[in-house]
Write a structure and sequence with these properties.
The protein has 2 domains: 2-101 and 216-246, no CATH class; 113-211, no CATH class. 40% of the residues lie in helices and 22% in strands. It contains 10 helices and 9 strands. The chain has helices spanning 2-14, 19-25, 27-33, 40-53, 62-75, 101-110, 171-181, 189-192, 194-207, 213-222; strands spanning 86-91, 94-99, 114-123, 127-131, 137-141, 150-159, 164-170, 225-228, 231-234.
């Protein structure tokens, strides 16, 4: 009986007790998951800092936190930093991974096919026209002053090969989209910074049709399940690009990357 109790106590001691313990326990998996664009040491420091700046992350289940952390690692995106690439977000006791629109742009550029990608707000006094079809075209000349209220939002990409694509939504359609899919529409960044959220929405939409989508699919498939010696850690069932159905928008300090608590 004494030996059994001793083994049980040893097992408990080996089990990580805090979120920071889990980060340390998964250092090897982090190193294996990370692409060359970021070092394991830097990534570990960023995740640890994220927990310090956003204490509610420490209250998340280890499984959800590890899954979200490793998703960020696999994509090579910096979580909860001023770069705005990706976020580890506490939602109840679950940690959810959300990619920022700057993270989408970074992944697109890594494909090597993209020349540029951008999103813009069209205001009522701007000169703007577009059409879809076999001869799709878009023209936008901003007004020099007194641009008025937002009326359209669009995103456009251009490939090195000369190909291009764009997506356009009216301002009202974009707000309706945010209201439908954002869990924090009434008190989150859709209220404090609607222009940036609208541009992020359009960037997500246009990237669905970009020829380099297969690169995203490859990354996305890797992000669903992570194997380790103790079994599987399931990443939350979000599509890294098409996160609309489970999108969790947050207020972020742009200087520190801190998730602002409500």
């Amino acid at each position: 009986m004494g030996q059994i109790a001793e083994k049980t106590n040893m097992a408990v001691k080996r089990q990580p007790q805090t979120i920071n313990d889990w980060i340390k326990a998964y250092q090897d998996q982090i190193a294996k998951a990370l692409p060359k664009v970021i070092t394991p040491e830097r990534f570990t420091r960023m995740v640890t800092t994220a927990v310090t700046q956003t204490p509610k992350l420490a209250q998340c289940t280890p499984q959800s936190f590890v899954g979200a952390m490793l998703t960020a690692a696999q994509l090579g995106l910096e979580p909860n930093t001023p770069l705005g690439q990706a976020y580890l977000i506490p939602y109840g006791n679950q940690c959810q991974f959300q990619i920022g629109y700057k993270g989408l742009i970074d992944l697109a550029h890594r494909s090597g096919e993209l020349k540029n990608i951008e999103a813009h707000i069209v205001y009522e006094n701007d000169d703007f026209d577009f059409e879809y079809g076999l001869e799709a075209d878009l023209k936008h000349k901003p007004a020099m002053s007194e641009r008025g209220n937002p009326v359209w939002v669009y995103a456009i990409y251009r490939l090195k090969s000369g190909g291009y694509g764009f997506e356009v939504m009216s301002w009202d359609e974009c707000l309706a989209h945010g209201k439908k899919y954002s869990k924090t529409f009434k008190n989150g960044p859709w209220r404090t910074n609607p222009e940036e959220m609208a541009k992020k929405t359009m960037l997500k939409k246009v990237l669905k049709y970009a020829p380099m989508k297969s690169d995203f699919v490859t990354e996305d498939e890797r992000a669903y399940t992570v194997e380790d010696d103790g079994g599987e850690i399931k990443v939350l069932p979000e599509d890294v690009i098409e996160t609309e159905a489970s999108e969790v928008d947050v207020a972020v300090d742009t200087e520190t990357g801190e998730i602002l608590q409500k």
